[in-house]
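User: Some background: our group keeps a shared notebook of sequences we're curious about, and every so often someone picks one and asks for a predicted structure to add to the entry. Today it's my turn. The entry only has the sequence so far, pasted here. Could you supply the structure so I can complete it?
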Amino acid sequence: MDNSEKLVWFLVGGALGASIALLYAPQSGRETRRYISKKARKGSEALADVSREALDKGRELYEQGLRVADQAADLFERGRRLVEG
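Assistant: Of course. Here's the predicted structure to add to the notebook entry:
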């Protein structure tokens, strides 16, 4: 399971937990709003972390792809020179 799937399940679990808490918690409206705000902020931070990780991984894969393409082009050029010889 990758990080994005974990985040989705985390957010789903958080939403379910928050919904159940709202139904059964004997809190005032102000306390409930504060709780919801706190959980939303944590979810937002988790999403930002996963987004940063995905962006970093994407950059890494892009750079790796460039290196492989350069190596393939070099090998192709060497082969062409050998054949033309």
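Suggested note for the entry: The first helix runs from residue 3 to 24. The two ends are 51 Å apart (CA to CA).
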